[in-house]
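Message: I would value a second opinion on how I read folds in token form. Give me a protein, with the fold worked out from its sequence. Write it directly below this note and I will take it from there.
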Amino acid sequence: MKYIRTRDGIYETIEGFKPQFEDMVCIPNEGLTRIIKQADTIEELCDEFVVAYDNENHNHIVYGDLEWTITKATSSKINYVIYGAIWTDKGLVYVAKMNDKGELCLL
């Protein structure tokens, strides 16, 4: 697994990563926290995908599927940025941003 999801974020793991205390890991500024899920891609760990349009209204549209998000964003004639997001106790938090190659990269 390349990435882990905790209550407050998504983190890239290092080679040979093994959770501490079975399903717990120590995250800087978070301390010891539970691993909710592990995956090979950031997309698998995101709850939602957000298209942020660069227009007068600064519209943001939330979708649950990345492919659909890309389809809707590219069909518009407005500049946009796609974010991967997770639900936390602080609300919807952006954890990744799509780069020019169409890959989600952690923020």
In short: Residues 66-75 form the longest helix (10 residues). The helical segments are 66-75.
